[in-house]
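Quality-control log, excerpt.
Job 1 of 2 completed; input and output follow.
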Amino acid sequence: MIEDQAIPSQESEEVATGNRISLWVLSIVRKFKSKDFQRDIWHTIVSILIALGVAAIIMIATGYNPGDAFSALALGALLNFDQVLWRATPLMLAGLSVALAFKCGLFNIGAEGQLYMGSLAATAVGYMIALPIIVHQLACIAVGVTVGLLYGLVPGILRAYRGAHEVVTTMMLSYASVYFTQWMVSQGPMHNPGDWRSITPVIFDSAILPKLFGSSFLSWGFIVAVVCVFIVDIFINRTVMGYEMRAVGSNEDAARTAGVNAKKNMALALGLSGALAGFAGTVEVQGYYHRFYDQWSAGLGFDGITVAVLGRNNPWGVFGGALFFGGLKAGGTFMQTNAGVPSEMVQVIQGLVVLFVAAPRLITWLSKHGVDYATWIKSEPKAGVASLLAFGYAIFGALMGIIVVSSYVSSNFSLLLLGFFISMGSMAVMVFHYQRDKRRTSGTMAISITWVLMLLAGLALSAAELIIVSLIMAGIGLILSMLLKRTQSDHLELQEEGI
């Protein structure tokens, strides 16, 4: 009798589980089909392409071949795909850290410090305590995550209960942790005896995470990071606490009126954010470095901010952003070796991608804070976007006017004057656009004509990089000038019709 009753119960549980999985799959499919998601994807792709185009112009101006550079970058990422995944692992966790805080309306700029504190604590457990292999690995992870959580909880409590802005407190605590860990491994109790370097002893083998696919770089930390993407996605979108954090991030006053404990959620959001950052550091120590080095991170916590921005604070967007930046980092060394382009160009591309991806939200933020230019762009998108593009063109032209002639300073003074005129004129055009001055269209046209003169000078000197850059800048300027004239005339027509 009991067995007969247990069978239907077991079958109903299996049906319920199957239904939950089906609903989860359907929600993912529905999300991919949504117009907002597709718009975000296209905007991100376009931002990456524009960033690569700007980087290509910079390479040409400085005497490098962008075709060789991008080919070497892509080839390096493909040939060293295990390094792509290895470099993506801490970026994924640091990006999730920043994204989770963003969901609650908080800006955790101190992921770097939380990463350092978590990795140092995990290292201490790794070489000071002898435990069985699986227990030791889990103990290091637990301690690293806990220390990161506590270090993130401090600014969370200060923000929630004392009103101290999290940007200031997390940044201050980040620097404090960097210098604290530096002292701990250089002169403090965790310094490796007899070693002139600022490092700790090596952790025990029982604390090391095993490698994947026989790679020298990639460990099981990558699998754990992907699992964290699933967990954070479910936490944010399918739990009560995640809903409350999103509510606080959307409108703190409205959430408080609805009965949500905003202070508790803000403190917990920064605490959980710190836990993920501490996990990022822990995974790197256990999976690759096997000890704590002074300054080993090289800005992974700050890179997490760029990953979160690129991923639009969506866990799966963070996953894609981490892979993209991991590919840039892995391919950067190969690009420098084979194409002769400095690996720092990867950081330029990374910064440009984030700039173009974040531009719409930056405009929205400036508009909310009373910046007239941003408000005008939001209210009149056609004329505003055209002006914004020309504004960016002017900024880039101000830099390129000097860069492109830098190689000819000693041999051609007139070319230097032309470059100086372009730079000064571009800065004047920036002011015209910001003030919505009527001269912004004619000013943009004048700068593009000056680039034509630079093109003629390049032809006279047979300078290939000067010719290509001038041709591109002149062409872009002329297109923008026509776009500005058209949107300005459309605006005047609407005013005359009283619309």
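Job 2 of 2 completed; input and output follow.
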Amino acid sequence: MLRTPKLDLAAGQRFRAPDGIVWEVLGPIRTNGGRPHVALVKLDDRLTKKVVSVDALYDKRLFSIVE
């Protein structure tokens, strides 16, 4: 579990992008910048992955939490 100032972020947690794509958190990723990042996998295509900052993940313009 990645502990952030905002919320606890766990592997398996899901987020929806504005285009309707649902992404699932794989886990934390180390980067050179010092800001926390996570790896995401596309829910309907497990071969598509990306890395985003935790700040971007909680930006309501970019993602919303899937309950």
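Post-run check on job 2. Strands lie at 2-3, 8-9, 14-16, 22-29, 37-42, 45-53, 64-65.
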